[in-house]
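#help-structures

NK: newbie question. if I give both the sequence and a SMILES, will the prediction place the ligand too? trying with pyridoxal-5'-phosphate
OV: yes, paste both and it writes out the complex. here, I ran yours:
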Amino acid sequence: MNNIKFFSRSNLPIEMHKVRIVQKLNLIPIEERKEKLAQAGNNTFLLKNRDVFLDMLTDSGVNAMSDRQQAAMLQADDAYAGSESFERFEAKVKEIFGTPFVLPAHQGRACENIICRTFVKPGSTVPMNYHFTTTKAHINLNGGKVVELLCKEGFELESDFPFKGNIDLEQLETHLKKGNSAFIRMEAGTNLIGGQPFALSNLKAVKKLAEKYGAFLVLDASLLAENLFFVKKKESEYKDKTIRQITAEFAENSDIIYFSARKLGFARGGAICTTNKEFYEKMKELVPLFEGFLTYGGMSVREIEAITVGLDETMDEDVISQSPLFIEHMVCKLKKAGVPVVTPSGGLGCHINAGKFLPHLKSSDYPAGALAAAFYLISGVRGMERGTLSMDRDENGNDVPSDMELLRLALPRRVFTLSQVEYTVDRLTWLYKNAGIIGGLEFFDEPKILRFFLGKLKPVTDWQDKLLTAFKKDFGDSL
Ligand SMILES: *Cc1c(COP(=O)(O)O)cnc(C)c1O
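OV: that's the protein plus ligand as structure tokens.
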């Protein structure tokens, strides 16, 4: 698709699929959105989907399936044991990753449960490029500790460094010398720093260090699809390799691979795979205990069929280029409009720098949460707060300010069209011009653990009324 050039204008990303099943969207008027927002306690997790216009909360389990996936779901084999659906799935995983041993699990965190219970012991450490929320929770649950070794560029919100997901190799070697690591974890498409990839050369160097110090390497491949695309586009050594060849090199340099098929494979489920029989035998016992029998692992056989085809489609550059190119377009347009965004554009969505968008707010005003609420109010678009609100209080009841205040606008794979992306950019640009109106939020109902999921907040002043008035002045009777 990179070879499709436009005659009359600069290049645009173009959809390499056509729509064959649709879901009707509603955009309720801004006055109603204000009411719904108040009912949801200004928390976008608590909005009803029917009140949302474009749902950019997450890319998890909400990716569009292809006609081939839907067709495959009809031929699912419902046997409890020895299902042919699983055989097809296992064969596809082997074909792509070259791993003879495959364990199914119901989603990504279930894979993490099995891996961490097997390998993490009290006092062990897990060095990694960057943690993911559920991974960290499972490592801690088993008495281990996450050691964050992200390269320094990864923490710079605005950068042109192509591989912000790289691990710092020097720090990794220093850490491995201590000899208490359960394993090294590399997360593809590093989620919490904005869907940023690591370089294949970085992974290869990590593998060498692992061998030198007798450690092994676990690859979290949940967001691998976009990382593969970025390696092909940005790492010159791999520009002439096929996506299949690049995938094989990722696999050859990992000892265990696991993934959430809510992201990789455009369906819902998960799996662990390895070439190491001993690792497989150790982990295998936990699958029937926590997930289900070895030939379904808690997944519906229909979803297993959909993942099998989805993994095959992941090997197609036209398919995996879609999200990165649409996100790049969105980030470029926002940057041109002066809106502070995380750069370079990553693979899972567009991340707005709420700290810079709302410099007049303190972290205790929850700038990223206020921005998520304000953006829903003026656009009907639902994003996710990733900032101080997502951090729980310390033991003294104080807020823990987050390193970054981000509004994440996820682009689920193959779901949104270019005009929907343009609408989002347009409304964000308007909001940035009116950012001074936006005030803080405060809790009126605050859970102690993972407060961002269910907590309810209210605006500290009448800023939402003022924002509505400004919207009406500029947009008249537009929704
Ligand atoms: C989503 C995700 C997980 C967890 O997967 P679930 O299917 O949501 O349990 C783990 N790692 C990464 C990088 C993810 O993005």
